[in-house]
Fold this sequence. Notes:
The chain is of the alpha/beta class and 374 residues long. The protein folds into 2 domains: 1-111 and 316-374, Rossmann fold, CATH 3.40.50.300; 119-312, Glutathione S-transferase Yfyf (Class Pi), Chain A, domain 2 (Up-down Bundle). Helix content is 43%, strand content 22%. It has a 6-stranded antiparallel β-sheet with strand order 2-1-4-5-6-7, with helices on one face. A 6-stranded mixed β-sheet has the order 8-12-13-3-14-15, with helices on both faces. Helix 3 (127-141) packs across helix 4. The chain is globular. The two termini are 23 Å apart. It binds adenosine-5'-diphosphate and magnesium ion.
Amino acid sequence: MRIISLSLRNFRNYRSADLDLNKGLNIFVGDNAQGKTNLLEAIYVLSLSKSYRTSREAELIRHGADAAIIRAQVEKLAAVDLTVQVSHTEKKRLLVNQKSTTANSFMGRLNTVLFIPDSLQLVKGSPGDRRRFLDVQICQIDPVYRNNLLKYQRVVRQRNSLLKRAWDNRSVLAQLPAWDNQLADLGTKIILRRQDIVQALQYHSRGAHERISDEREELDLIYQPCFETEESIAPGRQYTCSEVEEALRRELKEIRTEEIRRGYTLVGPQRDDLVFRINDQDLKKYGSQGQQRTAVLAYILAELELMYAETGEYPVVLLDDVMSELDRTRQMLLLSILNQKAQTIVTTTDLDSFTAETKQRASVFSIEQGRVIQ
Ligand SMILES: Nc1ncnc2c1ncn2[C@@H]1O[C@H](COP(=O)(O)OP(=O)(O)O)[C@@H](O)[C@H]1O
Ligand SMILES: [Mg+2]
């Protein structure tokens, strides 16, 4: 899958930009605050219908303008035209081939993998960061999952508000079993799908990890549902549907008093985690920074392979300013792996960090105050 051309109108600091992208490597070079990240953000919005940087969509509109438009021609099996319009006065519009559509049907048309300096924190970051990585990936390839996740988030919100009300009005607790059923039902679906995906990621990341690490080390990715502890889970442990559902129901029962006291839901996939181990050691606690970074890189490459396995096409890879964070060997390795597979869009402040050979096969663009010069 690749982006053929991209147009921006009044998006962030871009008044108007139209560019044709190389099917391999695209390098965007510019000083700080010129619009490099904005450009990748625009592509991400086309992929997931919303930004990873802000939930306030008005921020996407150029100061002083009424509406922002992001549009791209994407080549999948067939060509498709994607547009996102954000306006101060109207609801956001998502268009496929110039026809309005829902977020659920818009997503999955352009698949991307985003890698930013923050991503290097994946291992060390919070469980929420790791869940977001998983969700962003699965949502792109699985409309059923997207739907379940949205429904589940609604259930948790409503259940939380009920638990809060229960503090001074016990009678509302009569409604709790109905919400528990939904939580267990949807929660199980989410956990099982994430578990499958992590198993596939584990498989793909092993190969990638071998390629980028000089050490003889074995990387394990393990999905840790809320009803397990980090110590009790074992690599390769796969839970069945009834095991997950029973465990969720059991936990809900056990923790009910605590939930009422705290006023929110303490059980479910919103409390799960993803554990990285190297040679059976927890990477978060015992890994060196180098080991953690290698594992993240392997994870990102595994995402690529997984998307290929699930959709038959490689996603577009967005690398924001990460080259400077990687040593020379890893840079070269990453670019050479990507070169054989996926359209790649990289930003950098320093073009010299790329070899002459790399620059030669790439399209190089400069960005200056929201203007793109090829
Ligand atoms: N809605 C907006 N309207 C106009 N300018 C914006 C808007 N949002 C961000 N900017 C500007 O975009 C610039 C940052 O762009 P960014 O892509 O993050 O830079 P970098 O090239 O360092 O990645 C800043 O100058 C910021 O003021
Ligand atoms: Mg930036």
